[in-house]
Amino acid sequence: MGLVMGTFSLQSKQVSYHKDKADDDLEMTMVCHRPEGLDQLEAQTNFSKRELQVLYRGFKNECPSGVVNEDTFKQIYSQFFPHGDASTYAHYLFNAFDTGHTGSIKFEDFVTALSILLRGSVTEKLQWTFNLYDINRDGYINKEEMTDIVRAIYDMMGKYTYPALKNDAPKQHVDAFFQKMDKNRDGVVTLDEFILSCQEDENIMRSLQLFENVI
Amino acid sequence: MAAGVAAWLPFARAAAIGWMPVANLPMPVAPAEKNKRQDELIILNVSGRRFQTWRNTLDRYPDTLLGSSEKEFFYNEETKEYFFDRDPDVFRSVLNFYRTGKLHYPRYECISSYDEELAFFGIVPEIIGDCCYEEYKDRKRENAERLMDDQEDNKDAKLPNMTFRETMWRAFENPHTSTMALVFYYVTGFFIAVSVITNVVETVPCGSAPNQKEVPCGERYTVAFFCMDTACVMIFTVEYLMRLFAAPSRYRFMRSVMSIIDVVAILPYYIGLVMTDNEDVSGAFVTLRVFRVFRIFKFSRHSQGLRILGYTLKSCASELGFLLFSLTMAIIIFATVMFYAEKGSSSSKFTSIPASFWYTIVTMTTLGYGDMVPKTIAGKIFGSICSLSGVLVIALPVPVIVSNFSRIYHQNQRADKRRAQKVQKARLARIRISKTGSSNAFLHSKRNGLFNEALELTQLPYKMNLSDQGSTEDEKRLSKSTSLLESQHHHLLHCLEKTTNHEFVDEQYYQQSYLEGGLQNYPSRSPSLSSQDGVTGTCCTRRTKKHHTPLPNASAPAHMQPLTHTHTHPQGLQELSTIHIQPLSTSRSSLNMRVDEPAPLNCQSSQITTAIISIPTPPVTTPEGDARLPAGPAHQNVVKVSAL
Q1: Residue of A nearest to B595 (CA)
Q2: What is the pTM of this model?
């Protein structure tokens, strides 16, 4: 009989183990972060006070703790692309936003990046984009990095596309990109080459102005 | 998109700048915000209680009353507020839904009043959050059962044209429908009782002749009992055959438990008739008589409680199994211990371990017959431990079984597990539909977005021919058809398409084109479009006169998809290469709902209707290109015209 009771008590111990784990998770999310004052942010970015207010309300609603970690970020971004898998691209985006490499995005990082993207000069925007593509932050974009980025973008399309996605579509895209950008044909694209090539391309210039009035 | 996530749309659009250098195609024009309102507070007056919220908060769900223009019907000009003559307590939950994206069901609220409020405000109950969904479903089910019970009294109304067979079956199943059925019910019940009593009395010793030993009544009045038995079996056989005849599905009837009991009850008699007085099988025959006692189970047709008990035992199978298993373990352990403890003593009844089983069972169930008792001290100690633990082991699963019984009894033995599964399946199906619905919303609204864009493209060169009034009128109408949020989201998806040079299509279309292996020519099913050059259009620009037919708030029937390899026109306008008309699934902008919540696919979107746009005068291909207008009526079929 004691054996019977013993086996049952063993089972109950396992249950409580899982519960403890959940408690730990709860504790971690209690970390809270408050941004600097509204005036400072207004000075640092190109947004007006009202715009910052609207942005913060949306930010705080989704992330009450004041910081976004990578999982939440991926989740939020994936909701805009229900067809495909946006997690890889969201990962690269997260790294681009998280300039301090802290593993989480605070409101200041968020608003600084948005300020560049929406209100910055062409050079700043291109610099930010270069940073996004340069995954290992070594100052050069090589073919592997670019292939990763392009593949991540294609992943967002999902499976049901017209025409049907072929396996080498990203590769072709990357080759075309390098054809255009790599001026000295050394296999990597530097920041200057990038900015120069983009400024030569009318389409790109025009599309950079596309999101001027997003806020 | 969930509530708060809608606020992140600007971020997602800004991040789209990351795609720009990679794209080879020019990007579509962004939807312009016509009258950009600053976010303002609006007051909602619900039966005197005032709620205030941002306008943007309500705009998150454009397919509800508060999020759409329907609320304008409730606008009070003098007080500058929206007045609703509804319950303010329930409205709290409704408004919180907009704020947090989660709909909660308050426990104190009546289920039908809550449902009514949700229906009024255009919110589908399926999106109730998981925290409250179980409660909501339980209450709803109880309510439905109560309604059904009320209706069941009317259910027995006889249907107009029932065949004789159906009438008989109904009579068998519901005895109180007609007097004949009632009579039959009572007669069979009587004979079941008679048969059972006969079987019992048969074995009673009946008085005897002085010099003989006592004989049971069965052997003394053999003939009488035989006649009684025959009569009962006759009745049961007739009844069984009648049920078999009347059953709607004979095969299913023969497999059912009750029919098996019937068969087992009457079979021994017939077998007895067949093999008479054969010494070898008489032993087996006697055993078969035992099965006559199964007649008592026929009573379960007459008693609902018996059926519930049977159902309870079936549903508590796992608890019963656990009880049995733990008992077996304990019995084996204690029997072994007792055997070895009592081995030493002489004249011990514990001759083997299986012999000790009997002692263990009798002790654990606290029966204590006393036919086997331990004599050694060790045996007595272990015996007492055995009896104490017996109480525990048996007491443990019993409350579970009892509570199960009461639950089933109170719910009148409805198969709620089966229904819950169906509901769960339905819910999952709705979630799946909403996921495809959100992507379909984009595919469908692609036309809207592109039509919009086409209009804007046509603005510049065509300004001399168009009256400004006409164009802005049309634009206004179109912009009303989708919310700003949605159009921005669609613009974002469209940018992605341009970046990768592939289009989003829905699953059916993908399967089709995949199977067809990439057609070059597409059959044109549109009679109007056939006014173009046969099947394939031209790749030159077409000139159409812009027709001022008032466009209803409708989707554009066709949209143009410029591809890279068409030559660009000297004036920089893009070419008509393919026209795609996708089959529609009319989902109201479910894009603004959480993707993992089922979206309201309830009704046709009032904003999106398939319109017939009259075609302008036959297209004339001219070298000087002017802007084209998408033309052609909207069809439900897939119409693909390749203009390559």
Answers
A1: A79
A2: 0.48
